[in-house]
Amino acid sequence: MATAESASSSYREGLALRLDFDIPTQEKEFLKKRDVVVAQALQKLFGAPSDPKKVPTIALVASGGGTRAMTGLLGSLRGLKEIGVLDTVSYITGVSGSTWAMSALYQEANWSQEDMDSIISAKKEQMTKSVLSAFSPEKLQYYREEVAEKEQEGYIVSLIDMCGLIAEHLVFGKKVTNTLSEQQSAVNEGQNPLPIYTAVNIKDRVKGCESESEWCEFTPYEVGIQKYGAFVKTEDFGSRFFLGHMIKKLPEVRIPYLMGIWSSAISVSMTQLWTFATGFKPAWSTWLGPEVNNIDVDTEPSNQDTYVINPTTGIASDVTNFFKKRPVIAEMHNFMRGLFMHRDYNQQSNFVAWKETHPDAFPNQLTPSDPTLCLIDSGHAINIACVPVLRPERDVDLIISLSYSWEPEHIFNVLSKTAAYCKDHDIPFPNADFASLEKEPQKEFYIFEDKENPKAPIVVHFPLVNVTYKHFKRPGVKRETEEDIRAGEVDVSSSSSPYITKNMTYSEEDYEALVDLSSYNISNNKESILAALCKAQERSASK
User: From CA 97, how far away is CA 77, in angstroms rounded?
Assistant: First the structure.
């Protein structure tokens, strides 16, 4: 039987999928070309020539947050380009709203070499139109026809597909026929960082078990779940497989349908729906698992009474299972279906089989036994995309963390959850007393490093805050006029902010303000970023 342990890094033995924990050959070839670009960028920054074989691997990871994340990421990328750091980045990963920005950028083969202001202006036209335009009679008819066509092709369709088409209208304003595999033209020469889009395969149907979110990564080359070491060519994702063989080839889905999966914030559990509707979290949520706290929605606390139920009876157990269900979810044909992939699996850190209440503790419940993958927005697990670049095969030296998550009082939440994930999976990652840091005055820039473990990447973290931008319109240039002072009053923390998650479009003024704030927070910390980059370069050279 084919197992992840025995197969090589190439497609072999007549299989239509790759079984290996290593990155694919195409990605390795990309990195060789990208390293040349990185070496040239480092030479411009620091003067001394760099050996392409010894340059650090730098990943930019972006959070979810709907339109806020898309707009903020565009501003951050402009800031990174202005300070000369963008060309040192080899990977860009995204969750939810940040995948919208990535999807737009990678329509252009050389986007990172072009003027970011022109890209930002083009997206402003789309992101400032009325959200009601997405629900005109003509648009609703278009959605129905497109979803019917997708179903006729052999796919399982759901409300998530309509969400993807709404995102298509908001981001592009027109029908987009491009596919993810076509983005290879934007990376084959190493001219841009490699994009990694994310979703998680949710496993919350195992009775009596906590939920598990298995990270699924999407690149122009492959789609797969690293936990199992199983990957398919991007153009084959969604086709029907059994025992590693393709039994029915389906047309590759176009980008908007993937955007629907990547940003499926509506794939909430019944508990989350209850919380969103009533404003308070029911007491039974404490025994449904931590995922009830992860969705990026805005709710207000409630003073309503709750009742504590001990789920020891059959009825209570049924209630528990009901409230764990997700009524709206994206199902895709499981490319791992029928494979035997649990031989010695409990000895690998990818699995949490040591927890008795974890789905991994039951070999016959692992994902290869499921007919479909149940994919949802990664923000339901961790609202930032560090996990794909923490794979040891990618050997990342520096992570630039860009968080646009709406957690004004918990700006380290995404890192705290990432650190907890890494602890469970024995992945090197710098830890810190995040709870204590949140009690201190907020800063634009944080750096975390585990000096005792060189395998842990350096992490540079940028939360969404307005600290010095309110006083400076550019680094070192104070706001003097009343107009300048008003422009600095960008609200990214209150409940009346224009950037709360439910607002899907902005006014032109608010759009430009968020872009400028995100760009400023990068450029204002140029020296600190370069210092971290220099440290990563030294670490890479010493390997």
Answer: 15
pLDDT in tens, 470-490: 999 999 999 999 999 999 999
Secondary structure (3-state) at 217: strand
Q: Is 358 left (phi over 0), alpha (psi -120 to 50) or beta?
A: beta
**What is the length of the chain?**
543
Q: How far is CA 209 from CA 291, 303, 360, 362, 497, in A?
A: 13, 30, 10, 10, 39
Strand 240-242 versus strand 230-233 pairing type: unpaired
Asked if 374 and 331 touch (Cβ cutoff 8 Å), the reply is yes
pLDDT digits (tens, 9 = 90+) for 84-121: 999 999 999 999 999 999 999 999 999 999 999 999 99
Which tokens sit at 478? 């104070």
Taking alpha carbons only, the member of 328, 314, 322, 321 closest to residue 260 is: 328
Extract the tokens encoding 464. Answer: 């969404």
Could you tell me which of 78, 185, 186, 190 has the C-alpha nearest to residue 123? 78
Residue closest to 357 by CA, chosen among 315, 391, 415, 311 = 311
For the ranges 50-54, 156-160, 234-238, which has the lowest average pLDDT? 50-54
Cα angle, residue 388 at apex, residues 385 and 392 outer, rounded to 5°: 140
Token readout for 422 is 């890494």
Question: Rounded to 5 degrees, what angle do the CA atoms 67, 68, 74 make?
Answer: 90
- Residue 107 has which token pair? 């329509």
CB atoms near residue 348 (< 10 Å) = 17
Residue entry with tokens 């700006």: 411
Q: What digits encode the pLDDT tens for the residues 115-156?
A: 999 999 999 999 999 999 999 999 999 999 999 999 999 999
**Long-range contacts for 114-118 (Cβ within 8 Å, ≥24 apart)?**
116/74, 116/77, 116/78, 116/81, 117/78
Provide φ and ψ at 112, rounded to 5°. -75, -10
Distance CA 88, CA 85 (A): 5
Which residues participate in catalysis according to the annotation? 96, 377
Nearest-angstrom CA–CA distance, 101 and 505: 14
Determine contact, residues 38/396, Cβ cutoff 8 Å.
no
Q: For residue 46, what are the contacts with CB-CB under 8 A and spacing of at least 6?
A: 530, 534, 537
Backbone phi, psi, residue 143, to 5°: -60, -45
Q: Which residue, chain included where needed, has tokens 């737009």? A: 104
Q: How far apart are CA 156 and CA 230, in angstroms?
A: 21
376, β-bridge pairs: 200
Residue type, 368: P
CA separation for the pair 515, 120 (Å, rounded) = 8
Alpha carbons 188 and 192: distance in angstroms, whole number: 9
